[in-house]
Amino acid sequence: MEKYEINKIIDNLSIILSVLKSKLDIEKQKKEIENLNELMLKPSFWKSNPRDISKITQKFAQIQNRLKKFTDLQNKYNELKFLLNENEDKNDYFFDFIEELKLLNKEIKEFEIEIILNQPYDENNAILILHSGAGGTESQDWCEMLFRMYQKYSQKKNFKVQVIHIQEGEEAGLKSVTLLIKGLYAYGYLKAERGIHRLVRISPFDSNSRRHTSFASCEVLPEINEEIKINIKDEELRVDVFRSSGAGGQHVNTTDSAVRITHLPSNIVVTCQNERSQIKNKEKALQILKTKLLQLALDEQKENEKVFKKGQKDISWGSQIRSYIFHPYQMVKDHRTNFEVSQINLVMDGYFLDDFINAFLIKENDISN
User: Fold this and answer.
1) Could you tell me if 262 and 276 are in contact, meaning their C-beta atoms sit under 8 angstroms apart?
2) DSSP 317-366
3) Using one digit for the tens of pLDDT, what is the confidence trace for 4-29?
4) Residue 258 region, left (φ>0) first, then alpha (ψ -120 to 50), else beta?
5) CA 191 to CA 308: how far, in whole Å?
């Protein structure tokens, strides 16, 4: 790395830190810490509702942590810049400096994403739903490939994955699968995956070895544990029960424990089969239904404000967010950001997915521009 390249990185990091400082609104955050600290010093505070206590203490810790991280990054940057000026002509110091600069660059990029993930429910667990598109076995196999990719990605992020519902294909693959992905900021990260995913390859199910194009949709919702205030009338619901089957249900399929709830006005269907109890499956399905209706209401509100759809495409066949091409060349390309990698097999193993997600989140928030 040449010295002019180092100076360019240093200048770029200075700009990013300035933008982050502005977005953090340091003085406002410090004032909020003072107010929360005063509140927690009152004896009456600790007699409040335990859920309220938890929310406030978590918020206090989060603000403190973010301010400390920013201060640490700013100090590291100032130290590196000083050392660069002091040791500009010492080549033996150059290698160590580059390594420190790379590490700081990585830490600042990670902090960028953390600052971005400040929307409602970003910290929550995620409900991820995959549906195969038209195309029978080929698209169902693609749905299962995505299922595996998100499992691998979740393992690398130390997220836990629970299968809520799974519907297997007739010959191979999956028609649909619903996952609960548990981890801090799981929804904040995975919401970037919402949309249509396109596969191009020579189909292993085609005896003539022809190239096929397949689609699968990915829906992502936050898991909301608190009470969702959405009124649903009993007459708006159709509840069906049936025996669980397939992965996730093989141990509970001796009784009609699986539950399918249809919300008639919106035609939204939710299925849950991972619990042994029909009552618990119904509760979980109803919770997911309420979350879907809440997401629908939020989407409509953002559409009306003409903010939500900036740079996004409708979730509909033919408006894919990302293409995974195995043939005639190998490439994974995100059509929203133009970020692409050629190591497609590594992507399917959960690698590079954070790079796609981060590129989308940064672009949507204009934080590096």
Assistant:
1) no
2) TT--SEEEE-SSS-EEEETTT--EES-HHHHHTT-SHHHHHHHHHHHHHT
3) 788 888 888 999 899 888 888 888 99
4) beta
5) 13
Residue 154's SS3 state is: helix
Q: What is the tens place of the pLDDT at every residue in 162-176?
A: 999 999 998 899 999
DSSP single-letter state for residue 164:
E
Kindly report the pTM of this predicted structure. Answer: 0.74
Give Cα 342 to chain centroid, integer Å. Answer: 22
Contacts of 269 (CB under 8 A, 6+ apart): 260, 261, 262, 263
For the chain, give every residue range classified as CATH 3.30.160.20: 234-304
Single out the residue of 338, 328, 269, 320 nearest to residue 133, CA to CA: 320
pLDDT tens digits along 70-121: 999 999 999 988 888 877 666 666 777 888 898 999 899 889 888 889 888 8
The topology (CATH level 3) of 234-304 is Double Stranded RNA Binding Domain (3.30.160)
- Name the architecture of domain 126-223+321-365: 2-Layer Sandwich (3.30)
Compute the 3-state secondary structure of the chain and give helix, strand, coil in percent, each to the nearest 5: 50, 20, 30
